[in-house]
Structure of DUF3127 domain-containing protein:
Amino acid sequence: MALEIEGVLQQVLPEVTGTSKSGNSWVKQDFVIETDEQYPKKVNFSLWGDKVAEFKQYTPGDKIKVSFNLESREYNGRWYTEARAWRVDAVDTNAFIGGSEPTHMPSSPTLPPADNDTDDLPF
C-alpha cells in the first residue's frame, strides 16, 4: 500500500544510528511535515538507510511530497505503527495545476457585416 502526501517540512529530528544483531550498521532519520489543508495536520515520517543521505538537501520550510508505506508491528501485546518514507521530492510551487498555460479567448465576439441595411433584426 503506497501513499503520498504533500506538506511543508517543519522539523528534522536527530539522526539515529546503530548496529543490528548480525553486525550490520543502520541509520534512521525522522522528520515532521505539516499538511496544507483547511485543518492542517502534522505527520511524523521515518527514513532508513541510504535515503537518509538523499534527504539532507531539504531544510525546514521546504514544500515536499512524501511517498510512504504504513507498517505496524506488535511488541509486548501493543501495536506500533510507523509511516516509513521511501521517496521524498521537492514540490515546485510555480507549476501550473493543469500542466499548461491557459488559452486566451477574444474579449468580444465579432459578428459578420450585415447584408441588408433595412433589416434591423439580427436573425
Q: What stands out?
A: The chain has one domain: 3-90. Strands lie at 3-12, 16-19, 25-35, 42-48, 63-75, 78-90. The mean pLDDT is 86. The longest strand covers residues 63-75.
